[in-house]
Structure prediction request, 134 residues.
Amino acid sequence: MRVDGGCLCGYIRYEAEIDADRVAICHCQDCQVNSGAAFGLVAGVVGGAFTLLCGELASYNKIAESGRIRKLSFCPTCGTRIHACTEDDPTAFFGLRVGTIRQRAVLTPKVQVWCKSALPWVPDMASIPIREAQ
Prediction:
């Protein structure tokens, strides 16, 4: 699926080819801290098919539990996380942050990973009262 998107401030714009069947909720502690939320939501980019149209990404290299170096890329102006890839093999798993994809409303997660790190209230989110706006 061809998608496009960018960061909160508009400095970063991109196009990518994703596999809509590889949309995942990640409950690892790194995603929790890095996203500032209970989990990360990523779409798998097909064969490294990511094109930066505007701006220049900043990055931070993080050593994953596997020992591989994961390159976390983000907007240097507003800090929006854009993607993560394996430093020595960008096609291994290239995860594009779903919140930055313009077509995000049609991307339903297919799997949840690192569930051993999930916050205990996540399975009961349906019981938490909802409001249409703040």
Summary: Helices lie at 29-35. The chain has a mean pLDDT of 92. Strands lie at 2-6, 13-26, 40-54, 58-63, 69-74, 81-86, 95-97, 111-113. The chain has one helix and eight strands.
